[in-house]
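Our preliminary data section would be incomplete without showing what the modeling component actually yields. Below, a chain of 173 amino acids is followed by its predicted structure, encoded as C-alpha coordinates that our downstream tools consume directly.
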Amino acid sequence: ELISSLRSKLQTLWEERELILSEARECAGWGEELEATVRDVCKPNEFERYMMFIGDLEKVVSLLLCLSSRLARVQNAMRRIDGNTDAEEKQSLNERHKLLSRQREDAKDLKENLDRRERVVSGILAKYLTEQQLQDYRRFVQVKTSLLIEQKDLEEQIKFFEEQLENLEKSIP
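Predicted structure:
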Protein backbone atom coordinates (compact mmCIF):
# COMPACT_ATOMS: atom_id res chain seq x y z
CA GLU A 1 0.00 0.00 0.00
CA LEU A 2 2.78 2.38 0.93
CA ILE A 3 4.68 1.70 -2.32
CA SER A 4 1.49 2.25 -4.30
CA SER A 5 0.83 5.49 -2.43
CA LEU A 6 4.39 6.75 -3.09
CA ARG A 7 4.14 5.88 -6.78
CA SER A 8 0.83 7.69 -7.00
CA LYS A 9 2.28 10.76 -5.28
CA LEU A 10 5.28 10.69 -7.63
CA GLN A 11 2.99 10.45 -10.66
CA THR A 12 1.09 13.52 -9.44
CA LEU A 13 4.36 15.41 -8.90
CA TRP A 14 5.66 14.45 -12.36
CA GLU A 15 2.42 15.74 -13.90
CA GLU A 16 2.74 18.95 -11.89
CA ARG A 17 6.33 19.32 -13.10
CA GLU A 18 5.18 19.02 -16.72
CA LEU A 19 2.59 21.72 -16.09
CA ILE A 20 5.22 24.02 -14.54
CA LEU A 21 7.61 23.34 -17.45
CA SER A 22 4.83 24.23 -19.87
CA GLU A 23 4.20 27.47 -17.97
CA ALA A 24 7.96 28.17 -18.00
CA ARG A 25 8.03 27.76 -21.80
CA GLU A 26 5.06 30.12 -22.09
CA CYS A 27 6.82 32.62 -19.80
CA ALA A 28 10.00 32.33 -21.92
CA GLY A 29 7.97 33.20 -25.02
CA TRP A 30 6.48 36.14 -23.20
CA GLY A 31 10.02 37.17 -22.18
CA GLU A 32 11.17 37.03 -25.81
CA GLU A 33 8.34 39.36 -26.85
CA LEU A 34 9.23 41.73 -24.04
CA GLU A 35 12.90 41.57 -25.00
CA ALA A 36 12.07 42.53 -28.59
CA THR A 37 10.00 45.49 -27.38
CA VAL A 38 12.77 46.67 -25.04
CA ARG A 39 15.37 46.28 -27.82
CA ASP A 40 13.21 48.41 -30.14
CA VAL A 41 12.59 51.28 -27.71
CA CYS A 42 15.71 51.50 -25.53
CA LYS A 43 19.25 52.67 -26.21
CA PRO A 44 21.75 49.82 -26.69
CA ASN A 45 23.37 50.33 -23.26
CA GLU A 46 19.93 50.37 -21.57
CA PHE A 47 18.92 47.23 -23.43
CA GLU A 48 22.16 45.60 -22.26
CA ARG A 49 21.32 46.51 -18.65
CA TYR A 50 17.88 44.96 -19.08
CA MET A 51 19.34 41.75 -20.53
CA MET A 52 21.96 41.48 -17.77
CA PHE A 53 19.27 41.94 -15.13
CA ILE A 54 17.00 39.26 -16.64
CA GLY A 55 19.92 36.81 -16.97
CA ASP A 56 21.13 37.47 -13.43
CA LEU A 57 17.58 37.17 -12.05
CA GLU A 58 17.47 33.48 -12.92
CA LYS A 59 21.03 32.84 -11.72
CA VAL A 60 20.64 34.58 -8.35
CA VAL A 61 17.22 33.08 -7.56
CA SER A 62 18.48 29.61 -8.53
CA LEU A 63 21.62 30.08 -6.42
CA LEU A 64 19.60 31.16 -3.38
CA LEU A 65 17.21 28.22 -3.75
CA CYS A 66 20.05 25.74 -4.20
CA LEU A 67 21.98 27.02 -1.18
CA SER A 68 18.85 27.07 0.98
CA SER A 69 18.05 23.51 -0.04
CA ARG A 70 21.59 22.28 0.68
CA LEU A 71 21.62 24.11 4.00
CA ALA A 72 18.30 22.50 4.99
CA ARG A 73 19.70 19.04 4.20
CA VAL A 74 22.79 19.71 6.35
CA GLN A 75 20.57 21.00 9.18
CA ASN A 76 18.45 17.84 8.96
CA ALA A 77 21.61 15.72 9.11
CA MET A 78 22.78 17.73 12.14
CA ARG A 79 19.46 17.01 13.92
CA ARG A 80 20.12 13.29 13.50
CA ILE A 81 23.47 13.53 15.28
CA ASP A 82 23.51 11.41 18.40
CA GLY A 83 26.02 9.78 20.72
CA ASN A 84 26.91 7.21 18.05
CA THR A 85 27.95 9.84 15.48
CA ASP A 86 31.71 10.06 15.20
CA ALA A 87 33.51 13.35 15.85
CA GLU A 88 34.81 13.59 12.28
CA GLU A 89 31.28 13.49 10.85
CA LYS A 90 30.06 16.08 13.38
CA GLN A 91 32.95 18.38 12.47
CA SER A 92 32.31 17.89 8.75
CA LEU A 93 28.63 18.77 9.16
CA ASN A 94 29.47 21.84 11.26
CA GLU A 95 31.98 23.06 8.66
CA ARG A 96 29.52 22.51 5.81
CA HIS A 97 26.84 24.33 7.79
CA LYS A 98 29.12 27.34 8.38
CA LEU A 99 30.21 27.41 4.73
CA LEU A 100 26.67 27.12 3.36
CA SER A 101 25.42 29.76 5.82
CA ARG A 102 28.12 32.20 4.64
CA GLN A 103 27.40 31.39 1.00
CA ARG A 104 23.67 31.92 1.54
CA GLU A 105 24.35 35.30 3.19
CA ASP A 106 26.50 36.25 0.19
CA ALA A 107 23.68 35.15 -2.12
CA LYS A 108 21.23 37.30 -0.14
CA ASP A 109 23.56 40.26 -0.70
CA LEU A 110 23.51 39.44 -4.43
CA LYS A 111 19.71 39.36 -4.30
CA GLU A 112 19.60 42.78 -2.61
CA ASN A 113 21.92 44.11 -5.32
CA LEU A 114 19.69 42.52 -7.95
CA ASP A 115 16.64 44.20 -6.38
CA ARG A 116 18.40 47.59 -6.65
CA ARG A 117 19.25 46.86 -10.28
CA GLU A 118 15.61 45.92 -10.91
CA ARG A 119 14.54 49.34 -9.67
CA VAL A 120 17.08 50.99 -12.03
CA VAL A 121 15.89 48.88 -14.99
CA SER A 122 12.28 49.60 -14.08
CA GLY A 123 13.09 53.33 -14.05
CA ILE A 124 14.70 53.07 -17.48
CA LEU A 125 11.75 51.13 -18.91
CA ALA A 126 9.28 53.62 -17.40
CA LYS A 127 10.72 56.26 -19.79
CA TYR A 128 9.89 54.17 -22.87
CA LEU A 129 7.04 51.76 -22.15
CA THR A 130 3.35 52.37 -21.74
CA GLU A 131 1.86 51.76 -18.30
CA GLN A 132 0.42 48.45 -19.56
CA GLN A 133 3.80 47.35 -20.96
CA LEU A 134 5.48 48.29 -17.69
CA GLN A 135 2.92 46.22 -15.77
CA ASP A 136 3.57 43.34 -18.18
CA TYR A 137 7.31 43.63 -17.49
CA ARG A 138 6.77 43.59 -13.71
CA ARG A 139 4.40 40.65 -14.00
CA PHE A 140 6.93 38.81 -16.19
CA VAL A 141 9.66 39.26 -13.56
CA GLN A 142 7.28 38.09 -10.82
CA VAL A 143 6.04 35.06 -12.78
CA LYS A 144 9.58 34.06 -13.84
CA THR A 145 10.72 34.16 -10.20
CA SER A 146 7.66 32.23 -8.99
CA LEU A 147 8.11 29.55 -11.63
CA LEU A 148 11.78 29.09 -10.68
CA ILE A 149 10.77 28.65 -7.03
CA GLU A 150 7.94 26.24 -7.87
CA GLN A 151 10.21 24.22 -10.17
CA LYS A 152 12.91 23.90 -7.51
CA ASP A 153 10.37 22.95 -4.86
CA LEU A 154 8.85 20.28 -7.10
CA GLU A 155 12.28 18.87 -7.96
CA GLU A 156 13.07 18.61 -4.24
CA GLN A 157 9.77 16.84 -3.52
CA ILE A 158 10.27 14.45 -6.42
CA LYS A 159 13.79 13.65 -5.29
CA PHE A 160 12.57 13.03 -1.73
CA PHE A 161 9.75 10.70 -2.78
CA GLU A 162 11.97 8.83 -5.26
CA GLU A 163 14.48 8.22 -2.46
CA GLN A 164 11.70 7.08 -0.13
CA LEU A 165 10.35 4.70 -2.76
CA GLU A 166 13.81 3.33 -3.54
CA ASN A 167 14.57 2.74 0.16
CA LEU A 168 11.20 1.10 0.72
CA GLU A 169 11.60 -1.21 -2.28
CA LYS A 170 15.09 -2.21 -1.07
CA SER A 171 13.78 -3.00 2.41
CA ILE A 172 11.15 -5.44 1.17
CA PRO A 173 12.55 -8.94 0.53
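Helices lie at 2-41, 44-79, 87-128, 131-171. The chain has a mean pLDDT of 94. Preliminary results of this kind motivate Aim 1 of the renewal.
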